[in-house]
Amino acid sequence: MSETTNAATAVQPKMPDVSERGLTAAQVEDRIERGQTNAVTSSTSRSLADIVRANVFTLFNGIILTAMVMVLIAGSWKDAVFGFVIIINTGIGIVTELRAKYTLDKLSILVASDYLVRRDGNDVEVSHNDIVLGDLIWLRSGEQVPADATIVQTWGLELDESMITGESRTVRKKEGDTVYSGSTAVSGMALVHVTAVGAHSYAATLTAQAKVYKKNVSDLNKGINTILKFMTFLVVPLCILLILTQMKTVGGWSAAIASGAWRQAVVSSVAGVVGMVPEGLVLLTSLNFALAAIRLARKNTLVQDLDSVETLARVDCLNLDKTGTITDGGIVYDDFIALPACASKRQAMQALYDLANEESPNGTGRAVLAGLGKQGFTGSAQLERVPFSSARKWSAVAFHDEPEAGQGGVWYMGAPEVLLAGFANQYPDVLKQVNDYANNGMRVLLIAHAAGEVPADFETDPKLEVGAQPVAIVLCSEHIRDDAEPTLAWFREQGVRCRVISGDNPVTVGAIAGKVKLTGDRKPVAMDARELPQDVDELARVLENVDVLGRVLPEQKKAIVQALHTQKHVVAMTGDGVNDALAIKEADLGIAMGNAAPATKAVAEVVLVDSKFSHLPDVVARGRQVMANMERVASLFLTKTVYSALISFGVVLSMIPFPYLPRHISYIGALTIGAPAFLLALAPNTRRYIPGFLRRVFAFSVPCGIATALSVLLSAWFVPKLMGWNVDGSAQYQLLWRSMCATVLFVMGLYVLARVATPLNSWRGWLLAAFAAAGVIGMCIPFVAHFFAFQLPGGKGLLALGVQIVIATLLFALSVWLFPKFLPVTMRSVISQYKRISKR
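User: That's the sequence. What structure does it adopt?
Assistant: Structure tokens below.
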């Protein structure tokens, strides 16, 4: 055997003699040839090619790329700067999904190690992957179960199945019981017969389900894609019409091709197309999600899927796992309650300390030692000990010498029902008291004392003395996180319904939920998950009236999330065990603790790195900030879409040159939409998301877009007539004309920005003034003016521009006031709702 095996067996009892000889070498070879080994093929969650393809070949990229290529073919690279948004947006998407792929590919529930297997009557060591179906495995304390198996013989085997079932207490196994891969042996040993290996084992099944890639559905991105799909049907025919129109304005196809004027016609057509696509909104969404993730990272919160930042704003239902979320998994000593038979509380507490002071105390023992140690208790020197055994459910110490009167005899500590059942007197009052404490979520131990001589076979053949009397009740409890109660209070105030879903006893979980005021002053309604209906719709109805669920299996946790989805709830799920992984993946937002199992962290969208439940309000608030502010700034971008489409229609109908260039819209968009939108999106905002994002945005954008389009078209139609300019034949007049139209568009953009930024009696007013000044100053700087093709008119032209700005102002005010009057009552309420929201 290897050095590792010798070290492992050194701390184990001598291997018992068993009749089973295990598989023969020929049988092992046969199973290997059939592929019945414990090796699991690691399948990637999503290929690199799929990720690149999904992010590059999008509808948005297709529209923008086509427009950019057309401009570059026309030889006007200055008008193609809008195309850089493709590179930035695509890069952000690819990097984000590659990070998710890397995390999922590392996912593994089972820890590979070597195991002792009985083959041909000999015990040999094989690796995790070399275990085959039908093998006999020695499962020893400290080892993880490598494959699903049935126990053939057991010598006190106890398993920690918390990572699989969610049950925090260890489970004692007997012959014929099934053990699942992924659980861990904490004491004893057993010989087990492997019944499922590799991909067919329970842990591998969980891993495979958890590795399935899930793309979060972003309400914001869905709204943007809806607009893009609509614009696709509009852009293609409109682009063709624009090209035909612009070709006619430069003398027709033959003259345009002969003179090269077709290039300008193409550039003018692209100006209308690019304006209709809210390219900045797509980029700003990705950037804001990324910035939110960076801000959360500073607070030890890792966002693994950027789209999940938006989901945070919509969460209205939060499912909490008890252990690791509300409690930290530790045990604390709470109280020592002396019973009438206790002659000396001090002596009984000393005996309790000695009972807990074993060589390797369990969690409860450590809590007792810590609690009594603070009160000055230390271990006694002379005593005999019977260590705690899960089979007996009790431990004992005996004092032959009596340092104090009444200290001698045998002292017992263990499960109250077991100790009381072994005494001559059943003590029904004590049992009732014990049950009352247990029903309040306490972990209850009983201390009993049998005075007199210590039996000679105390250590070799320990048994309960029927004449022993219960002298004290010891109360312990799970340690509740200090931040649990205030965090839950915050969620209640925000209208988020919280439920505790655990694998533990529903009474215990319900009591803990009551302590942290899960439901405020109302007592939480607890239920055993074994009583839940199978039908999803019926399950959803039951859940509406339940606050706490205990004895929940992993499959049930997933079903609970699915049932809540049928009621249109946006569900967040927290957890730390493998048993939570499927539910976390099914939820709209999966939140894992930093100390969670690797499988759970891999499938979660958000990881609380330092496992602090108190970070959740910050997480939700950050999501609300992004969503509320993005709704505000989306109005800016969609206003541009509306007026670009209307201006394009006006140009086609009136057969005039397009009134501005792509570089004009890039300049104006940067100062009245792009940069201001980015700053507005970073402003504090904790408003809870309200459904109807797209309707509210359009209710704002349509009147503003109509006013802007009319103002630009009026300038385009009447300025040449007033000034006597021939914009079709003179390049100089065309430059002046387009500069005036672009200036009117800039002023209208400022009006729209002012309406979005309302109220202006704060930093938002200074923001508006700063960008207005930047726009005017930029037009006066020769290099900037030349690059963006601006030329301000003088004399009569300047007066005409002033008149157009006044008319535009009146049109904007009239449109914003008049438009809602012609809408149905429902749409009026949408506009009113938008106004209330925008003031926050």
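The first strand starts at residue 114 and ends at 119.
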